[in-house]
Amino acid sequence: MLRVELKRMLKTRSTWGLFVIAFTLSLFFAFYTVRHEAYYQYENGQTEIIRGSKAYELKQDRYDMVSGKITPELMADAMKIYHEIIEKYGDDYSVPAEISDKVLGPYSPVYTWIMQAFTDKNGIHYSIAELSPEQMKNFNEERIMTLQRLLEEKYNKVPQVKEYAMTHVDMDRETFDYNYGIGSTHTFDNLGILTFIITLICIVIAAPVFSADYASGADDILRCTRDGKRRLAITKLC
Question: What are the tens digits of pLDDT across the range 149-165?
Answer without folding.
Answer: 989 888 988 889 888 98
